[in-house]
Amino acid sequence: MGETSVDGAKMTDSPGGNAAIKSEKKTEKNSFFSWLLVLALLGAWLSVGVMWFDLVDYNSALGGVYDADGDGDFDVEDAKVLLGLTEKPVMVASPENPLGEKESISHSTHGSTYDAEPSLEFTTEESRPANQISPEFPPATQPVPTSVSTPKSIIETTEFTEEPSVESKEEKEAKKKKPKLLNKFDKTIKSEINAAEKLRKKGKIEESLHAFEALVQKFPQSSRCRYGKAQAEDDLAEKMRSNEMLLKAVNSYKEVAELPDVPPDLIKATLKRRADRQQFLGRTRGSLATLEKLVQIFPEDVSLKNDLGVAHLLLGDNKSAKRIYEEVLARAPHDGFAKVHYGFILKSENKIAESIPYLREGLETGDPGTDDGRFYFHLGDALQRTGDKSAYDWYEAGHRRGHFASVWQRSLYNVPGLRAQPWWTAEETGYTVLVKMLERNWLTIRDEALSVLDGTSGQFLPEDENLRETGDWGQFTLWQQGRKVAASCRHVPKTCGLLERYPEATSCKRGQIKFSVMQVGTHVWPHTGPTNCRLRMHLGLVIPSKGCRIRCTNQTREWEEGKVLIFDDSFEHEVWQEAESYRLIFIVDVWHPELTQLQRQTLSPI
Fold first, then answer.
1. Residue 159: what pLDDT?
2. Can you tell me the distance from the alpha carbon of 310 to that of 141, in angstroms, rounded to the nearest whole number?
3. How far, in Å, CA of 368 to CA of 374, rounded?
4. Within a 13 Å sphere around the CA of 173, how many CA atoms are in the beta-carbon half?
5. What is the value of pTM for the model shown?
6. Is 45 left (phi over 0), alpha (psi -120 to 50) or beta?
7. Which of 55, 314, 504, 528 is the most buried (most CB within 10 A)?
């Protein structure tokens, strides 16, 4: 009995029937492979059409993720990114820092200027910046705050969860519009460019540079080849830590922008990188000129104007920077970057109350470039000076964001791991010999200081860092950043002679040795020093019987004639002079005792 099919039709067992079925299946297979061949041929011709006749805009076709790893083409690495097998590189607005520094720009000790980092070339800097602030403090009798509420808008940015991070407006725009770096000619040699670029991406920088140099020789008008050469020189400079090689890269970037038929996106990328590298080398005016050219070419790009404002600040030209940020805010009133920098400028002009809304609103935007300890510093300081206790909320927020070592200790350049306490004894510092020498010779030191104060009072220069609320405060410096001020020491030769034997003080590149005179009615705002790398000694010379005191954190002390007080001025401190006559002390900064000799030799001056 023959078997039946699923639908009940009877199937035959004859050999002829089986042969017919096999023949039909073979025909189906041949037909299937024929269609595959046709589709493959169509795909090949379509690819030719796309490449030679620009039939497809890859940016729109692939939704801005065509080049997922940012190397200028689509390859296996891009596929890995798109498939989630590797992370997509994060593009940041701030300059790259080959030294591994947390920041590449900073403000001065107390924030009146927007200075470049002490050493921006390839060096052996070992400190890690962590910004500072100077606020008004609760009365010294009050306890140290143990918990501080953080502003609601900041809490949201400081909590870390496993939820996907929200992309910024700039990141979304970057995905929508991938930079076009190839002109029509460069598209015809794309495979050769890609081959050289792959070497650079794989870390074979020397080979990549040779490949791009050969391409530039072969195609001297190719902007993309010359840009690749500049990038390879840039990478090699970092690898070699060579300023000379970096200068070659800076010049190559310039050559790219001067070629004909350079795509606008490539001009922008080239000149931005050139300005960044010029700034890194300390060529701030050159960087400014490059940014001015960029703004002329791309007048609608607000981010370039923001960068130009920073360049003016780095040169100390706050007036020009202010004008630029006013233009930005007129066009983009909610731009957080412009707001915090405009607030910074207002505060440097001592327009304390006016600066507060710009600093606060700018920080609340969370825009790139705003999460910076300087702005937490200046907002907190401004709030404190206007009597607003919410200053501590912002200090706490800055601490949570990693900008401050603590709410109390808000110094700028820190070496991690050093012992941190506001007040020290001579025994704790290990500098007992120095302390005993100062106390034993205090009368000699006092008499020389009085001769300068009485005979040539003009030698004492007024404090110029906007630290005083009221009164007069003058200083006469003998050593600055580890260098002897010979002109000053001629007036006080015995004092300088005594100090010469103590390198922990005279070689302290992050400190000073100076006399300090404070007149009646002076109040110094709470403030912090720039670094945790030093300790500060105060030798009392002329101290009124009452009315003079210094607070560091929540402990207040008074000076005594002939005695040394030692504190860490990276912690917040405040001074009152409410006596009936002037106060005169001798300030001696010393290296933090836990710093190694190598660190003392290689740390940059402040």
1. 30
2. 42
3. 14
4. 5
5. 0.70
6. alpha
7. 528
User: Burial of 448 by CB count in 10 Å (0-12 exposed, 13-18 middle, 19+ buried)?
Assistant: buried
| Distance of alpha carbon 328 from alpha carbon 567, whole angstroms | 44
Instruction: Let me know: does 460 contact 443? Beta carbons within 8 Å.
Output: no
The strand pairing partners of 552, in sequence order, are 555, 573
In degrees and rounded to multiples of 5, residue 4 shows phi and psi of -105, 150
- Domains of the chain (ranges; CATH) run 344-404 (no CATH), 423-602 (2.60.120.330)
In the DSSP assignment, the letter for residue 481 is T
pLDDT of the residue at 173: 57
Q: How many other C-beta atoms can be found within 10 angstroms of the C-beta atom of residue 456?
A: 11
Grouping H, G, I as helix, E, B as strand and the rest as coil, residue 563 is coil
- Cβ-Cβ contacts under 8 Å for 501 (sequence gap 6 or more): none
pLDDT value of position 178:
85
- Other CB atoms within a 10 A radius of the CB of residue 437 amount to 15
- What are the tokens at 132? 């500072």
pLDDT value of position 465: 85
Can you tell me the distance from the alpha carbon of 239 to that of 232, in angstroms, rounded to the nearest whole number?
10
Could you count the other beta carbons within 10 Å of the beta carbon of residue 303? 19
Residue with tokens 């001025």: 569
Residue 561 phi/psi, 5-degree rounding, is -65, 130
Q: With beta carbons less than 8 A apart as the criterion, state whether 573 and 527 touch.
A: yes
Q: Are 140 and 526 in contact (CB under 8 A)?
A: no
DSSP state of 459: G
Closest CA to 518 of 467, 562, 482: 467
Q: For residue 464, how many other CB atoms are within 10 A of its CB?
A: 11
Ranges of residues in the chain whose predicted pLDDT is under 70? 1-113, 115-176, 455-458
Largest CA distance in the chain: 134
pLDDT per residue as tens digits for the range 36-86: 554 555 554 444 443 333 333 333 333 333 333 333 333 333 333 333 333
Are the C-beta atoms of 593 and 430 separated by less than 8 Å?
A: yes
CB 226 within 8 A of CB 196: no
